[in-house]
Amino acid sequence: MPIPFKIGPVHHDPVPGTELEIDPDYNVIVKQARERMGLTQEALGRAINEKPSVISHVESRKLKPDPILARKLMHHLRVKLLVPSSELEKSS
After folding, report:
1. 10-57 pLDDT, tens per residue?
2. What CATH topology corresponds to 20-91?
3. 35, 37, 44, 49: which has the fewest Cβ within 10 Å?
């Protein structure tokens, strides 16, 4: 008999019900973290099951990561890409 499992978020919202948005500097954060770990775009793509072109497009701001891609990048690169909307409003 298969064991049921629930697919949930990699990281929980800091406060339940808080709206999360992608950090405006996501491209710099991803590129710096990837380089710090000594990974090529190809190696990072393989590690998170994405094409290298996806990584390239994220790093060049041609593609804004959706929540699923953002969470994969956050998990593998150990960075914070999703921030509460309220934090973004304070910094503007």
Report:
1. 444 455 667 889 999 999 999 999 999 999 999 999 999 999 999 999
2. 434 Repressor (Amino-terminal Domain) (1.10.260)
3. 49
Residue type for 22, please?
Answer: I
Q: What token pair was written down for 66?
A: 């959706």
How high is the pLDDT of residue 92? 56
Which residue has tokens 């804004």? Answer: 64
Phi, psi of 90 (to 5 degrees): -65, -35
Tokens representing 86 are 């309220």
